[in-house]
Structure formats: C-alpha cells, structure tokens
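Worked example

This section walks through a single chain of length 178. The input is the sequence exactly as stored; nothing has been trimmed or padded.
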Amino acid sequence: MNDRRDLAVVRPPAGSLASVHGLSALLAGYHLQTEAEKGRPVAEAAALPAAYRAEVEDPDGAFAGAAVLVARDGDTAVGCVVVTAPVDGRAEIKRLWTAPGFRGRGVASALLDAALAHAARSGVHTVRLSVWRWRTGAVSLYGRLGFSVTASWDEREELVCMERAVEEPNPCTEQGRS
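Given that input, the structure is written out below as tokens.
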C-alpha cells in the first residue's frame, strides 16, 4: 500500500543531521542489516566498522558535501537517502533505507524522487548507485524507476551497479525547492 499522506521528505540544514530525530537509528539499522546480510553480524552500532560507525555517530562529518534527504512521519525520520556531490556531471545515491515498520508505503520511492529532483537541480546528468545483489526488492525498485545495470565501478563482489539519466528540472514546477 502506498500511503504518503503524512510523509514529508526534507533536506535538513547542513550541520544539523545529528539532531534529526531518528536519523542515527536509521543509519545504524542500515549498517547492522547490511553487515548481517554479508555474514558479519554485529549486535550494536558501537561494534560496526569505523567508517560505518562514523556515519551513525557523526552524520554531518561523514556526509560533508553530500545531500542527506530524510523522510519524516511527523517528527520522526522513517527513511533516508544520501546523494553525493556532483563530479563531472554525475552523482551517486547511497544509504537508501526505510524503517522496517514503514516499508510498502512509498517511502523509498518518495526519497528516490526527491534525490533525482535534487540531482537535476544540481546540474547532474547521470545518477548511479550500487546495491547488493541479494536485495532483490531494491534492485526491482531501481529498475522500475529507470535505472539500468551497468559495468561495475566497484571491486566488491555481489554488488549490482546501476545508473540512469537525470531529466532537466521544470522551472515552473521546481520553484522554491532546495
């Protein structure tokens, strides 16, 4: 069921990510689940590898220069996505995650729509992402949203690399957005 009535996707101001209610828990959930799926389960965020733990503990520092978009239900973060800063007309989508209790409600699609709109406003012509092969639901979602499998730019096995062109924003409908 896609129920976006109470959902808002926002980009918190730079320097405020640590104060976004629920964001650290989302990032911890993403990394804990990923480590478990890779066969390296850890019990808590404090036991994550240092780079992942840094995202949970200091998202402003970990994602400096990137756009972090947060889906909120009321005051609580229920999903997030990171869009890297453009390089040579390309950006990468990272850390797309929806809280398990909010899946099936259109949160991931809303986040991806917002991420693509942000990329277009930033002058990006191509957005890419990588996803673990076993996350078949995510691979299917990306395919439905126009991403296609491309040659890998990452050495890690089991990753599916995908990309899609970004449409130019319509200035009549995009005014006032950031």
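What to look for: DSSP finds six helices and seven strands in the chain.
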